[in-house]
Amino acid sequence: LLCGCLDHSPYNHCSIKIILGTMNKKKDTIQPLDGTKVPRFAGPSTFARLPEIRDVEICDIAVLGIPFDAGTSFRPGARFGPQSVRQASRHLRTNYHPNYDEEPFKVLQVADAGDLVCNPFKIDEAIKQIEQGATKLLNKVDNIISIGGDHTIAFPLLRAINKKFNGPVALVHFDAHLDTWDTYFGAPYTHGTPFRRAREENLFLNDASMHVGIRGPLYSRDDLKNDEDLGFKIVHCDEFQSQGIDKIIKRIRDRVGSNPLYLSIDIDVLDPAFAPGTGTPEIAGITSREILNVLRGLSGLNLISADVVEVSPVYDHAEITSLAAATIIYEIINLFAKKSR
Ligand code: MN
Ligand code: MN
């Protein structure tokens, strides 16, 4: 380990190359800074203190910030989500995850791709910028995990994902809300409409997609029927209590099957007790323990990319919401590590 490279960089990539060079040439990833060598409150401000994408030769998974919140209908502020989730991600112990029995950052090269530039005044232009930015990134990396940003961004992300993976994907959408409404105040691109727009372009499979965690009152008696017509099944939030985690995991797995899976996670699927810092909080939600256990149950599915959206730090307390989002992203990285085996 004493190659001297700590003089130039806090990362241990040169050390890893030397070790693996004599043992196993398969991977020589640049891992996050080791929390036992550099305190977790120090070091770079990237997600989980990973290298930036320009510092790696190959990249399996890129973590991408999309600081856009011009599509919000109530509380704004998700434009500050990416930087806040990155800050909270310093808490993560990145070496080993016992629930997956994985050292994910040894198995996969993960890097922080920084933030996309999105026009905060022209939503149409921002949609194009997000689609183009994600498409360009997906030409260089296998998978992306996007940090929102409000839920509007899922629509251009799904466009980019469809280009990369040659057609519609299974969409599993964790949210208190359907996000399949048509327009707000005449506007087609908002955080309440991304999956209606996605349906119009056939971006997700209508026999393999699902909402998880839906609850609360609706705008109309027809909302659930209209949503079903778009090709979604629903795990209602109360079913976490009436059915339990294992049954819900089975329903999701049966629905998705072997299709390529895109996860879109609105942090407001969590109860406001676990995620107060969000745009449209909805009480009686799931717990942070429940979402982690559902995600772990998706191990082995054909996960291709994901987003975690709607963290609005100004409404947060003690980084609760940002920590939840950062931890969920880390769980998703472990799902990718499992899939790569
Ligand atoms: Mn929501
Ligand atoms: Mn949403």
Q: How would you describe this structure to a colleague?
A:
It contains 11 helices and 8 strands. It is an alpha/beta fold and 341 residues long. The protein has an 8-stranded parallel β-sheet, sandwiched between helices. α4 (123-138) packs parallel to α5.
Write the layout of secondary structure elements.
Layout: H1 13-23, E1 61-66, H2 81-88, H3 104-107, E2 110-115, H4 123-138, E3 143-148, H5 154-164, E4 170-174, H6 194-200, E5 209-214, H7 223-229, E6 232-236, H8 239-242, H9 245-256, E7 261-266, H10 288-296, E8 303-309, H11 320-339
Parallel strand pairs: 1-2, 1-3, 3-8, 4-5, 4-7, 5-6, 7-8
Helix pairs in contact: 2-11, 4-5, 5-6, 9-10, 10-11
The structure holds manganese (II) ion (2 copies).
